[in-house]
Amino acid sequence: MTRNDLDNFWNTDAAAKQENCFSLDAHRVSMGIRMSEECVYSELKEPGDPWNIDALPLLRRAELNKRYNEKALKTVGIPLLPEQFPPAEAVYPPIRRIGEVFGGTYARGYRTGEWLHHEKLQTPEDLTAQLDQVDSMLADGYRNLRSFIYPENWDGEKKRIYGDFGILPPLLRHIRGPVTLATSLYGLEKLSYLAVDDENLFIRFGHTIGRVIIAMAELSDREADYSGGDSPRGFSFADDDCSLFSPDMYRKFGHPVLKAVFEQYAPDPGNMRFQHSDSAMAHLLPQLGTLNLTGCNFGPTVLVEEIREFLPQTRIDGCLAPFTFMSNDREQIRKEVRRDCEAVKRTGTRGLNIYTAGSINDGSSLESMLAVIEAVIEFGNYR
């Protein structure tokens, strides 16, 4: 493709993104893929750990991204990765995360990414004791929770960073989903037994997760000086493991969490309500369809027409399989993009944003992104 062809593509794509990709004025489906920083190593043939990008020195990270963007401009017509980052002295100190509130531990390994576990949470009695501790932490206007989450130097650092850089603390508007959190902490097998043997404790676990999510989001609002419901709206979840729950289990455990959080943080029609779960969770679509999701990113076996049956007004980010994209098989990429474009046209709707049905991983090439662009041009016209 020529540079003019690419410029015309991106100009047209800007219109395709209007009205959450549902604009009737759009000529074709939207192109959502923008790559990820994981991809710099394979693309540039550089050594490095794609699972731990944040550990790179900022100058090295910026240098890699700049070189990547130079190649991206030539290949797909636009830069894709950030080249500037806030200085280290403008970054807020790390705070404890939701898994730690429940007594878990986050760990990282070379080329293994991050995982959450809780070695001592083995029995229903252990879980009950842990939930009692969380309930205690949620008492007293979240004072105990705040003192647990935020480090001792937080107040001083917040004053300094805001004074020197005008940067407020980040808000909590995205989090690990309730099922993935629970299976990481307690294990799927034990959770499944619990749903049968002690339904009340099973339901309590899910309910407590919902309470903690809302409490942590409210604390983040306070730290950023929002009050009285004037904070930014919208919320998203990443819940890969939701596919492991039966509809009945999810109805009792996961769905109430999303419903409660959305009611508080995304109550209006235009607010973002997003669910990512790159797994075979089609059996949960009827329940997710009651949540008025504005966006979704599901597994590569959960396809456009099936999603549309239950989520007619939801932007679909997908459904190109990540392993297809990472394998850089141009013909298979074209085949899957064509499948999705033709499927959304058969439904008589819009709202398709071509993306991978899950993460964009190291090994995914700019040439594969170009193959998607070419397939969108060839097959993605609505008219």
Give the number of helices. Answer: 18
- Could you state the order of secondary-structure elements as H and E? HHEHHHEEHHHEHHHEHHEHEHEHHEH
What does the main sheet amount to? 7 strands, parallel
Rg of Cα set? 22 Å
Helicity range: 40-55%
Mean pLDDT equals: 95
Shape: globular
Structural class given helices, strands, pairing?
alpha/beta
Number of strands: 9
* Distance between the amino and carboxyl termini: 23 Å
Strand content: 5-15%
Low-confidence stretches: none
Strand order of the largest sheet: 1-9-8-7-6-5-4
Write a brief caption for the model:
The chain is α/β, with parallel strands linked by helices. It is 50% helix and 9% strand. The radius of gyration is 22 Å and the shape is globular.
